[in-house]
Amino acid sequence: MTASTIHGYPRIGARRELKAATEAYWDGRVTAGELEATGRELRRQAWTFLREAGIDEVPSGHFSFYDHVLDTIALVGAVPERFRPKRPERARPGRPDAGGGDPGVDLDTYFALARGGTGAPALEMTKWFDTNYHYLVPELGPDTRFRLSAAKPLGELAEARELGITTRPVLVGPVTFLLLGKPGPDTPDGFDRLSLLDPLLDVYAELLAELRAAGAEWVQLDEPAFVADRTPAELDALGRAYDRLGGLAGRPRLLVASYFDHLGDALGLLARSPVDGLALDFTRGGARNLELLAVAGGLVGKRLVAGVVDGRNVWVNDLERSLSLLATLSGLAGEVVVAPSCSLLHVPVDVEAEAALAPELRSWLAFARQKVAEVATLARGLTEGTGAIAGELAERRRVLDDRRGSGLTTDPAVRERLARADRHDAGRASPYGVRRKAQQARLELPLLPTTTIGSFPQTADLRRVRTAARRGGIDAAAYERRMRAEIAKVVRLQEELGLDVLVHGEPERNDMVQYFAEQLDGFVVTELGWVQSYGTRYVRPPIVLGDVSRPRPMTLAWSRYAQSLTPKRVKGMLTGPVTMVKWSFPRDDQPVAETTRQVALALRDEVADLEAAGIGIIQVDEPAIREGLPLRREHRAAYLEWAVEAFRLATGVVRDETQIHTHMCYAEFGDILPAIAALDADVTSIEAARSGMTLVDDLQGAGYDQQIGLGVYDIHSPRVPRAADMEALLRRVLAVLDPSQLWVNPDCGLKTRGYDEVTASLRNLVEAARTVRGQLGAPRAG
Length: 782
Hints:
Blueprint: E1 3-4, H1 17-26, H2 32-52, E2 58-60, H3 68-76, H4 107-115, E3 125-127, E4 134-136, E5 139-140, H5 151-162, E6 167-172, H6 174-180, E7 182-183, H7 197-213, E8 218-222, H8 232-246, E9 253-257, H9 265-272, E10 277-281, H10 286-295, E11 299-309, H11 319-330, E12 333-340, H12 359-363, H13 368-384, H14 390-405, H15 412-420, H16 432-443, H17 460-470, H18 476-497, E13 501-502, H19 514-517, E14 521-524, E15 531-534, E16 537-539, E17 543-549, H20 556-564, E18 569-570, E19 572-575, H21 577-582, H22 592-612, E20 617-621, H23 636-651, E21 659-664, H24 673-678, E22 683-686, H25 695-699, E23 707-710, H26 723-734, E24 742-743, H27 755-775
Parallel strand pairs: 1-12, 2-6, 5-7, 6-8, 8-9, 9-10, 10-11, 11-12, 13-18, 19-20, 20-21, 21-22, 22-23, 23-24
Antiparallel strand pairs: 3-4, 14-17, 15-16
């Protein structure tokens, strides 16, 4: 009989219960025991739902209070020395710690690793492969000592057993864990992360023995690092790891899971190893995975977990096409298990909660609950035959036909305009050197100009006002008065602090993508479609339903008003086309590149309007451009070509004297510096403080000519950086860059922080810039 399973389920709760409980704990409004109780209840709800929905093998371990990689850091004891307690740890009710048992990590230390603590900067945070989920980066070095703290996986296994459910623990695999890590700040150059493999395998071997003794029949070890190009040494490490773990006596059966692309050379290697099953993604890289599986001679006597339901997008599955693929796969493995392509943490919980969406549109969509139902239906159809699910198949054919024939998806005017756009439109009139002189003459900025990325703190009062306006509790005039008052407050604050280039603070914006999606034709937004981005930061990705256009200006009135309040320059703020599409759920019936170009043309109209209104600096943020880089090198050149073209199409309309900025954060940018330069933005600001200014090493010798702002203030930590710390970061950058190239700014927007810490941090930022400016012999500004 064909079984069904999933890799993981959204951990946040249908109503964001985890966010509320976690932030209440941080604020001291609930105890650790109460937070633990919320976690137990969310786990119970997920496991019970999955069992009742017909999922045969329910996973455990996918729940986390912050991040599953952080949980693994705690699990294996890879905690940097600066976080180790200097005094006795306070007792906590409930489970003994957040990541494992003695000598585990207590809850406060766990959150300090993620958010920073007194004198202890947080771990670096970056994107989970090519998704908008952020993970905490393990710090590894020759002094790293692993030690098992297994209370979390053992405790969750026991919790599920109390409900009558035997779960399959899901863990980050040992080789992927090492490859996700980076050298710590004191690690000598040339350190090889894989040198830690054998001691880490000792911990995993101990863990597997404990899980088997506790009743685990299967354990899943995720190795998604191998859907990217890997060196022979890395592939050898994978083979050694699973030869050893697969050869353990008395172990549970091992499922090695991959997702987001094809496994390449690792597929055959794992197929030959003594593991008991492989999980493959047949939605991204699926055709290649099928070829590789055939070349390897299939998985004789092994389990294949076939990811045929897209775990990263929200469109309903073509059940008949999936059944056909599953039938093919059944001849290539000893057992086929139906599954989504990856964990469902990347999609919202339940489309049926979206009462404001038209029923027709809801029928086209599948969120986590609906994807679980699709998996169960496919497993039943494969086991019992298509007659057993004839009604479901007929209904799905009708839904797919309705979507294909709907007038909501196509706008001839948009397609005609895109066909007329050419490469001349995708570029500035003059080269950067010419533009820079024109901009210097117009803007008259000092050396090392200071600015912020865009948003200022989103207070509870602001959120209440926006909610009241959306629900009709206040009229448009009252809403506008409140937003104008907040803008005026933010502008005054920046003037008092002495910042050189100001922003309006974005009080009217709920999210940098959703705000624009609500005003563009072709997008729809949800009410409860929350997805975790990191920690308690959740977003509601819009859905690209059809062809995209801009019916009216989106930011013009707010930017005009802000600029009217001050003689200083105020940036116009937009979200770029790649990020708009990447941080939405794109349509799956046309190439993503085409959708992105449509968005670029819509933004081009907004850029032109801002310039015509006298806005001299326009920032078009593209934090997702590195995130969207394909995991396999063979596809990267084509992606970067259309991504760069889209940005240039959006910004190429302005005159030389108008300065175009862009912003990027929380990804690895060193390998796409040529593409960043090709965007032809005049100024690029990039997150660098949290990653320890590692981008400086990439800039050295890269010949980067444009202006750049490397962030000197990590905004994802409540810690207020000292002016001296920021001065040191600036001096490090100035060892590589000419002072005329450097801007001074935070890593990212400030919306998640409070005003007290933002004010103190920005005051220190301005002081640091002025001090270094003085050391360079340049006049002080402000």
